[in-house]
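To: structure subgroup
Subject: Chain for Friday's discussion

All,

I'm putting the inputs and outputs inline so they're searchable in the archive.
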Amino acid sequence: MASMPPIERFESGGGARIYRLPVEAFPQFIAYCYVVLGMGAPTLVDTGSGFGNSSDHLLAGLAALADDFGEALALTDIRRILVSHGHIDHFGGVAFMVEHTGAAVGIHEIDRRVLTAYEERVIVATKDLRVYLERAGVSEKLRDSVLEMYGFAKKHVRSVPVDFALDEDTPLDGLRFIHTPGHCPGQVCMLVDDVLLSADHILARTTPHQAPESITQYTGLGHYFESLAKVQRIPNIRLTLAGHEEPITDVYSRIDEIRASHERKLERVREALRAAGTPLTISQISKVMYPDRHGYEVLLALEEVGAHVEYLYQHGHLSVCNLDEVEREVNPALQYGLA
């Protein structure tokens, strides 16, 4: 079992109380849920994965607010569940928490169907991923292995109703929402006075994972860069609390660091092609950039490289070199070269 971080209390400039509750979303993988008090009805932001010990950790964290912090808060006092985005480590526990609290659920409209039509979404997303892996040049054996891993952790979740949308133009008792697509189509950052709940859009140490828009609309590095710039234009953010890792005291500098990291990855793609001296598939570029990845990390590497290849192609830095094959075959692997 992962060593669990402590529950922490933060306060916004306007006096709202924000509690950070750790859960083990997956083995050895910590995610944070947040309770916001003092801005309308008691609100839970994200619910963990619902997998393994995640929901038990969340219930224990909520109980600790009364026992350890003196908050007059019972479980059934939670009236709103806000889902930052449609990734399972953030919404997988929604059905469980609705059953225990009766709370209304909100999510951005672009990720709404991830909750309301979950089973459909898994089938469609798996099909889109298979097509992408074929086009990336991944072998049939590895494709089957990757897709099996992709579907494993999704089997315990079921669809749940959504009661309202998180809309940039509609604050909720002073909570503001900023749509920041890229890492996830419906990713929303939430502004609690001068405190930003950034979910997976901005993390303290990790450069958040990217996937190409060719798999899912509103992802992709171009959207992500635009969303980083959007947050950077928000003045006077004093503290940023993310879905993983540590609090961030200077989000503006952190955004600069994240963007620089992606610029380095873009250059690494170009370097791989220059060194090869011949066109390469996304799978081949991935093996150059991430040679030691195993298990589920293989898929993450293929998506990360694909997002950067797609961005370079969109911006005219790469070209597809096997057009005859692309025209002739149903879904051949694309071979990229420097434009």
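Points worth raising on Friday:
The longest strand covers residues 17-26.
The CA atoms of residues 45 and 82 lie 5 Å apart.

D.
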